[in-house]
Amino acid sequence: xxxxxxxxxxxxxxxxxxxxxxxxxxxxxxxxxxxxxxxxxxxxxxxxxxxxxxxxxxxxxxxxxxxxxxxxxxxxxxxxxxxxxxxxxxxxxxxxxxxxxxxxxxxxxxxxxxxxxxxxxxxxxxxxxxxxxxxxxxxxxxxxxxxxxxxxxxxxxxxxxxxxxxxxxxxxxxxxxxxxxxxxxxxxxxxxxxxxxxxxxxxxxxxxxxxxxxxxxxxxxxxxxxxxxx
Length: 230
Hints:
By secondary structure, this protein is mostly helical. The protein has one domain: Tetratricopeptide repeat domain (Serine Threonine Protein Phosphatase 5, Tetratricopeptide repeat). The chain is built from 11 helices and 2 strands. A two-stranded antiparallel sheet has the order 1-2. It is elongated and about 50 Å long. Mean pLDDT is 76; it is low at 1-12, 14-23, 41-73 and 76-81.
């Protein structure tokens, strides 16, 4: 929704809290909430959940995470979900409930038989990012981009993952073409704003943020991001 001035109202403000008490965990939660497993740049996942790191397995020459759970763990949740699309929907549902580990197990099960499944690779990356395994998440997004170079979801997720890893210059390199293109969405622009602000380019971030947000929202967002800078 936009105001009479053409800017998004506060309901679309991407940081809906004050700068008080900010830190790395808050930043991780915000950015993880922007990662996307669907077909648009609308978020469908929440913040990170601490969990044990899964093991790695080789799938047709690829190294992919594997579930390391017991009989009572996420592997049980895969049982009975036979259809691939149903399994992906189930995994997305787990992510929406902040359950990254069971989602990881389901996405991995899909990739075992379909290693180039783009929704599963994107979802795998989101689950890994939520678990703090950013290098592996970036590998998953890059696999998508190797298959479909124009996939904006994977590009967006890769940029956000690089931001989470503190690699702001690399993040901006990835996010700029998505955020500044003719078909760029407000969400894509604000993702770039986050990387710019965290890199220290407050003026540039403010200028871009004003394309979509009201001045007060721009100020609050940049104050919060400044407090989160490493």
